[in-house]
Amino acid sequence: MSFFRKLLKQRQQHSQEDAEMMDAMMNNAAMMMTQFDTSDEPQGRGSRPGRSPNHPRHRLSRGKNLLEDYFIERPIFEPEDFRRRYRMQPHVFDRIMTALCNIDPYWHQKPDALGELGLLPQKKKTQTVERAV
Description:
It is a single chain. This protein is mainly α. It has helices at residues 2-37, 59-71, 79-86, 90-103, 121-132.
């Protein structure tokens, strides 16, 4: 009987030591998480004060030029030029563009983090086609 009592007592001591070790590890992890959360280092990258400004990309003027080149009533370039460059007829491009805009909000023109309007849906689609070809 004394053997089983010793074995039971050892198990209780081990489980108590394991529980204490687990508590210490949890406290340590909690302290590390609070240090991580309260650190003054900025989270992630992107636009924030003190960083160098983004280079001007002239998105609006380039989008306007694209619309004038191909997508207005009297474009600068002929439909044959559009077909040669993007390997599809303009009316096919318009149908795909309309379907994409109705399905996925990615293709909509939205303001970015600074409140400036992003790329036109036509510009996004033409860039996608250029990369795919």
